């Protein structure tokens, strides 16, 4: 009885928070869908689903629901307080960028190089399929294991991190192009996403492409200019479902697998909180932002390791040693899961329980700053960063995507894939006459 009452109360809280977030957002911005409402809806939905699933997953405790509720509250307070008001709203069509243009030749070169690096593992994948059949779970374990167990640190950097970053950057720019009526890079984006997905057996790139496409649509939309091309969304979601089937799910078991993919992160976090000694949380020695700001620290640490031979560990090391091994998150049935710990684990590892507030606050303020930057600059670089930040929100129920060097590389490639326009100087008639007279 007590469990039923608790579920009823939590359900009511999630519904009320979603309604309030939507109401306050509409009052201030005259718009319903903004980063704070996306964050609220996603986390409320996952929180609700975790209480009413029949998947034999570990059920999240009241502590995790308290984390979710606290993060929703702090995100909305900060966003509504610091995001630009309705008169400066960012939902407008991007004018032709007079400063930057997309550097397509550089993108094609970077894509070719990254495909070359990736092909080392693609060959292994093809050999695995020929020997054991099309089992994407086995492929994922094989190729990630080959990278993680390599004694050469930079082997992983060039064969996984660089291809992932280039693929992500190209798919982000391709999704923006598509929403702006330009199909350049769309085919290349799809090819690179499919190739990376095929090679490593994961679904992250597919989910990211969906996030980028929807995020850029929400930022750029204007009723007379942009319409959401639902066929592309359906195609990408279909690919996500197909990948789930290839990872061992029968058609009858498909809903269960998809649900566990999104809700399993809460069960994994519950397992972590129940066993803090297994996940580096028992001794209370916090890293104070090392993981939260890993996108800043990890490139610096890698440079130190390269040039000074230091044994210092990169931020992602502290996540990978605990979260990358597979753990059973099932209650009755064995259900093995890894990597997706929600964004909360990284924050808790850094700051303890207070990290839920600190980390969520950082994400909310980052979004606000990037929105203001886009409003002020209204150029391609600021747009790329803002769209990327939407993916951080959308992925937050599963993972925190800013801990490792992959995020640093993505931001780097997004910066270098645009170049300043070449301004052609034309002499006026008066200038030409003056020069002729001087002769």
Structure description:
With 439 residues, the protein is an all-alpha fold. The chain has one domain (97-420). The chain is built from 17 helices and four strands. It has helices at residues 2-29, 35-51, 62-82, 104-132, 136-148, 153-179, 186-200, 204-220, 230-246, 254-274, 294-308, 315-323, 344-351, 355-377, 380-395, 405-416, 429-438; strands spanning 100-102, 327-328, 336-337, 418-420. The chain has a two-stranded antiparallel ribbon. A two-stranded antiparallel ribbon has the order 2-3. A hairpin with a 7-residue loop joins strand 2 (327-328) and strand 3 (336-337). The N and C termini lie far apart (100 Å).
For this entry, give a set of tags:
439 residues; mainly alpha; two-stranded antiparallel ribbon; two-stranded antiparallel sheet; 17 helices
Gist of the model:
With 439 residues, the protein is mainly alpha-helical. It has helices spanning 2-29, 35-51, 62-82, 104-132, 136-148, 153-179, 186-200, 204-220, 230-246, 254-274, 294-308, 315-323, 344-351, 355-377, 380-395, 405-416, 429-438, and strands at residues 100-102, 327-328, 336-337, 418-420.
